[in-house]
Structures are given as C-alpha cells and as structure tokens.
Amino acid sequence: MRGGPSAFAMEYVWEEVTLTFSRVPMFPFFDIAHYLVSVMTLRQQLGAVAVAWQNPLVSWFSAMMHCFGGGILSAILLGEAPVKFLENNTNVLLASSIWYIVFYCPYDIVSECYRFPPVKLLAAGMKEVTRTWKIVGGITHASSNYTDAWMVLVAVGWARAAGGNVIVSLEQFLRGTWKPETSKLLKMSYPVKISLVGAVLFTLQHSGTLPMEKHSLMFCYTFFIVVTKIAMMLTESESSPLTPFEIMLGRMLFGFWQNDPSSGPCKSSFNGTGTRSKPYSIHVEAKRRHTKKTE
Amino acid sequence: MRGGPSAFAMEYVWEEVTLTFSRVPMFPFFDIAHYLVSVMTLRQQLGAVAVAWQNPLVSWFSAMMHCFGGGILSAILLGEAPVKFLENNTNVLLASSIWYIVFYCPYDIVSECYRFPPVKLLAAGMKEVTRTWKIVGGITHASSNYTDAWMVLVAVGWARAAGGNVIVSLEQFLRGTWKPETSKLLKMSYPVKISLVGAVLFTLQHSGTLPMEKHSLMFCYTFFIVVTKIAMMLTESESSPLTPFEIMLGRMLFGFWQNDPSSGPCKSSFNGTGTRSKPYSIHVEAKRRHTKKTE
Amino acid sequence: MRGGPSAFAMEYVWEEVTLTFSRVPMFPFFDIAHYLVSVMTLRQQLGAVAVAWQNPLVSWFSAMMHCFGGGILSAILLGEAPVKFLENNTNVLLASSIWYIVFYCPYDIVSECYRFPPVKLLAAGMKEVTRTWKIVGGITHASSNYTDAWMVLVAVGWARAAGGNVIVSLEQFLRGTWKPETSKLLKMSYPVKISLVGAVLFTLQHSGTLPMEKHSLMFCYTFFIVVTKIAMMLTESESSPLTPFEIMLGRMLFGFWQNDPSSGPCKSSFNGTGTRSKPYSIHVEAKRRHTKKTE
C-alpha cells in the first residue's frame, strides 16, 4: 500500500493543474501577445514601415491579415463569412491599437522594447499558447457540422492555427512583394508542421482514439511547443525537433527502395526543409548561380 | 412669425424631393448606365478588343466581372454564393446585350457615340447614382445577419460599391495582363476612397449615430459624388476633393511627430495617391531607372 | 401494322439500356479510373516527381486538387465549404492510395503499365463517363437552391465537370510553376468546351426545354464524349470536333461584318484554339521571337 496515497495526490494535483490551465482565458493578455508578435513580424518585413507611412489603410489591412489570418482561412474552408472576425469589435480594436503603437509610436518605443530578449521570449511563448487554443477552437467549431469527417477537423484545426502564414503569403503575393520561390507552401515552416501535428492529435482525442483527457493533452502539447519555441529562439538554431520523426516516417512510407540503384530519384531521403539533402542543395545552388548571372 | 410658413414649406419640399429621389428605381436606366460605363472601361483596356474577337467567352466573362464585381465580392465576404448574381436573369441579359453591342456593333457605333462628351458625362453621373444604392443595399443586406457588427457593415457596403475594382484587378492578374505595381489595392483610387467614406456614413446612419434621415443622406451623398465626378471629368484633374481631409486626418492620427528630426521616415506626410510627397516620388523614379537598366 | 412490334421492341430495348446505363454506380471502378488519369496528369508535369520525393505533403495536396478540383470549385461557387470533399473518407483514401502507388511504387510499375495503350484508352474512356455524372450531379445539387436560375445551373454543372483544370491552374500559379501565358482560362481546352456544351444540354433537359429523357441524354452525351476522346487519342490529333459548330456560331453571332474592310479587327474569324487564324499565329510568333531575344 506504500506510495498509493502519494500517487493519488500526484494525480489529483496533475488533474487540477491541467484543468485550471485549460480554463485560462485568452482574452486580454495572450491575445495581446499574439497581436504583438504578429504585428512585429509584419514590421520587420522589408518596406513595411514605408507602406505604413504612405498608406496607413493598406498597412492596417496587412496587420489584420497577420493577426486574424487563421480565423479567416478556417472560415473560408468551412464556407462561412471571412469578415466574421470583424464581428468581435473588442479584439479588432485591440489588434488595431497594437498596430498603431508599433508603427507610429514616437521614437519607436515599442519596437525598441521588443528587442529586449526577455520581452521577446515572453511574447513568443504566450503566442504559442494561443496556438493550442486555436486548434481546439477550430476542431470544436468544425465538429458541430462535420461530426465524423476527421479529415475536415484536421484541416480546420490546422488552418486556424497556421493559416495566418498562408493568408499572409497570398496577400503579399497579390501586392507583388512576395515571390513564390520563397513559398511557405512548398517549404513548410516549423510552426506549420507543429500545427499539423497538433491538429492530428486533438482530432484523435476528439474522436476518442487517443486515451487522454482533453485538458491533459492541451497542457502537454502547449508545454512542448512553448519549450521548443523558446529553446529554438535561445539557441538560434533552425533545426526542428520534428526532423527525426520526419525521417523515420519518410523511411517507413516512402523509403523501402532507398538503396535500390534503379529507382533514380529515390536516392534522396524524405525531407522537407529540416535536413537539406544533396540533390536539393545542388538545385538551390544552381538557382542562385542562375540568379547571379541574370543580375 | 415671419419666415415660419416659408421655412416649413421649404422643409416639406426638401422632404418630398429626397423621399422621391430615394425611391427612384435603378432597374432600367441607371443599371444600363452602370453596365455601359463598366463595359467601356473594359473596352478601353489594351488588347480587350482582340480578346473579344479571338475568344468571346473570356471577354464576356471579363465584362460580367466589371459589371457585377461588387456583388460578387460582397457575396464572398459574407460567405454566400458568388454565382448569386446569375440568378437575376434580366440584369445579366441586359449587361450581356450591352457587352455585345459595345464590342461587335458594326462601325463601332456605340463606342463612337460614347466619345460624345454629353453622353459620357450623363452615363458617368448615372453610374455614380448606382453607387449610393449599392452601399445602402449592401449595408441593409449585411445588417440582417450582423446587427451590431458595424465593421462588417462598413466592409460589405464598401465591397459592394467599390469591389468591382478589386475583382477586376484579381481577374486581370490571373490572366497575366496586370502587374501588381499598378495595384489599386496599394494606391487607392478616388472611387474606392469615396465609397469607403459613403460606407462609413451610411453605417453611422444605420446605427443611429448620425442625426439624419436615410433618404436625406442618400440625396446629399449622391449629389456630392455626382457633382465631384462631373467636375473631375470636365476639368480632367486628378486631384481628389478628399485630399485636404486626408491630410488633416493624417496629421491628427499619424503626424504628431512630423517635425521631429529623430524619427526618420516620419518626415513624409500622410498621403496616398492624392499628393505625391518627395520620398515616394524618389522611390518611384529609382524604380523606373532600375527598370530601364534591366531592359 | 408492319414493323410496329419491332419498332416497339427497339424502343423498349433502348429504354432499358439507357436506364440501366444511367444507374451504373461510379464508385469503385470509374472513380478509380478518374483518379488514375488525374494523378498521371500530375506525374507527367515537369518536376512533379522531384516534389513528391522532397515534400510528399505538397505532392499529396496537388494530387487531391487534381482529383477533387471540380467539386471544390462548384462548392466555392455555391458558397459551400470547399473542404466538403474530405467528408467522403472512402473516396479520399482511394485517391490517396492511387497517388501513393503512382508516385512511390518500386520500379514505377504503375507508370509503366499506364504507358500500355489499351490501359490508357480504357482509363481515359472511363474518366469521360464520370464527366457526365458530375455534370448531372452538379445541376441536381444546384437546382435544389436555385430552381429557375438556369445560368447558375450551367455554371455549377460546368464547374464540377471542368473546374479541376481551373483549380489546378490556380494552384500551380500560386506555387510559381505556371505562367499565365499558357492559361487554360484564355485558350479553353477541348474538355472545358465539351463540359460547357454538356452543362447547357443537361440544364435545358432539366428545365424541360429539351424533348428528351434524362437517361437517354446521359447515354448519348457519354457515348459522344467517350468516342470523341478515344478517337482523338488514337489519331493524336488536336483538332476538336466542335470546331465547325464554333465557326458556325461565331459567324452567326459575331461575323455579319466579316468582309467589311472598315471594321479592322473583324477580319480574323471567330475561333478559340481550334483553328488558329493568321492574326493569332502572328501574335504568338512575335511573342516567341521576343522571348528568344530576352533570353
């Protein structure tokens, strides 16, 4: 009987902590962090400050795309009104205020503060927390209409969490400031990948396949993405913690004939951006040379 | 008591006139003017006549985008069917007939007639009248679903009145005949700006903030845009009557630190296309030089 | 009374055959043929195999666009959820399996088999059969909401049958692997044209204008498109059987003033891609020369 009560207490504490965590409201602080990180991402783009001074309305529109892109994309995917995000006056005004102080504050006080590492880390960590809430929100919303269609749930959860990247790319493409070569569609970035993993996990949990409570999964997933994000920012490394899993999955699904010399392109192992294999690098280098020549 | 009955009569006449005006049906004549101006805009584009002779279906599709673009964009924003405009058989057939006679009439009779200034002025003036009706229609339609979301009302009213420009740009972009440099998204044209002002005014009226009757506002706004449009066409000037307000608003919102030498890009005053400030012109010239070199 | 019973028997047989034909389920075999042809079209594109090995998820996404593009476009046109196709788990898994074996099968067994002409002809013929079912399905689906709007029915029927081409072009355009010059939007391909004809015919039948039973029309239309497709594949000719009708229609609608020397561009007869008239070829050649120079 030794350790029984203690294990029970541990479990109780864990239950309490994760339940409390899953009830944390996003509204004022986490949303502010998300808007701040999104608008700062916009500001760090080439020419964004000049656009803000020449045509504030376009800059405001871009900022809203950065802040609410995920919601817009998931609304489009579900055939709902893309302007629905404007219904929430408070959040739009909050995001607009942050856009205003980031771009027009005298002496760039906000940008200077944002450069201070602890502020940046805190904001980035809090933004990652909103990612979990978005995935859960997207899946819950989609499941009211598409109960059994687990692929729809994954798509909507993913779109709400990572769709901002897609919408922003599209918007920049239409404005002419983005070239498809640098496409995030083709080279999936780490946030896009981790959002997909999250959407799959929460969909499995929703359909009852994953033997885990929702609040526990929320806690674990959030813990993982926050720690990973902060670790990646501190070490400034580009290597994603998903790479080993990707390689394993790639070998399982597509790599049976890896060592078969007859099957031409199979020599390159399965990898997206994580680990650049030789053929890909050669291709990129050839492109760079070509670009240099034309310049 | 002097002037009392006269003032009362004046007010009565004003009430009568504006009420009658607000009940003018758009259907045959104003719609024809709108379709005529839209299709003539298409015809004056480079290569449009050649496309019409080589592939009439594509030309017809472009003409429909020019005529019904605003309705399509507002339907997309509200998550409704973009093909809804095809439901109104009469209007589509009317627009198609105008497209047909504009492009295929022997000896280009219609285009020649359109060059005659009074015809052009009348058509342009009548087209501006439809703008008011579109803003009001968009706001009324959106308010049935989104009562309190005033930002949604502004967005839908604006999209219905000025969305044609956006849809047409997108369509030309996809066809490869439009470069993002000349984007109307970035350099908002005068019709786009005045539609935004109208959408804001009618939304304020709708929510009861503006102490004015709907029909009076319709009369005043229409009067203003028609007179402005005709004046701009007669004087062939590009300067918009909104420029002073824009500069004032810009100074109020973004220009506190105008004369502060430390805040770099703030030197350029707030202005879109209206008044080209120095930094912008320099940028444009630099671009032109660069383009010449690469050629 | 001679011939009476025989004619009756013939009619009965015809009725039986067409009715039985119209009840053939698409699910396993015809759908497989459609997915196979669509994925093979993707595979034959330049660089598609390399993308499949470097980033399987993007390749899978492209394959789904090729297989379900028509359904996605018609859903967008009707303001429904574009992800609705994911609801049908079985079909998505079937299409995914075909994508998997086409791209990753050792020794490219599937691609090699597909090169064998009878297989190719059979698959192409069966794919054409699904076209009829898609047009009928689209019109039936749209008519539940838009009963009298025959233009909406045509648009949705056409979009479901030929929309894959449009969605795929858009997707390639956004990925940067497609130039608008080769646009299928401007030069309508034969499948796009024949789908339009089919959509018009079935809409006429639906509204009761065409004195023909639905199942007879399905049989005749399918017979026509299958025979035409196989004949075109066997003779490897590019000339479409619709060209004479197009020229006739063009003369009727746009060609009254053909021989009138005063009406400049009218000299070129009405023709899309079918018959390349002189002015168009000259334009194309001039373009080619220009391209060479810039290279």
Automatic annotation (TrEMBL), chains A, B, C:
InterPro entries in alphabetical order: TRIC_channel
The name this protein goes by in its record: Transmembrane protein 38B
Native source species: Vombatus ursinus
Localization: Endoplasmic reticulum membrane
Pfam families referenced in this protein's UniProt entry, alphabetically: TRIC
Designated gene of the protein: TMEM38B
Lineage: Eukaryota, Metazoa, Chordata, Craniata, Vertebrata
Family: Belongs to the TMEM38 family.
GO molecular function: identical protein binding; potassium channel activity
GO biological process: one example: lung epithelial cell differentiation
Reaction catalyzed: K(+)(in) = K(+)(out)
PANTHER family attached to this UniProt entry: TRIMERIC INTRACELLULAR CATION CHANNEL, TRIMERIC INTRACELLULAR CATION CHANNEL TYPE B
Main location: endoplasmic reticulum
Basic residues bias spans: 286-295
Highest taxon of the lineage: Eukaryota
Membrane topology type: Multi-pass membrane protein
Subunit organization: Homotrimer; conformation seems to be controled by binding to diacylglycerol (DAG).
Keywords, sorted A to Z: Endoplasmic reticulum, Ion channel, Ion transport, Membrane, Potassium, Potassium channel, Potassium transport, Transmembrane, Transmembrane helix, Transport
Annotated region (Disordered), positions in chain: 267-295
Role according to the record: Intracellular monovalent cation channel required for maintenance of rapid intracellular calcium release. Acts as a potassium counter-ion channel that functions in synchronization with calcium release from intracellular stores. Activated by increased cytosolic Ca(2+) levels.
One GO cellular component term: endoplasmic reticulum membrane
Polar residues bias (residue ranges): 267-278
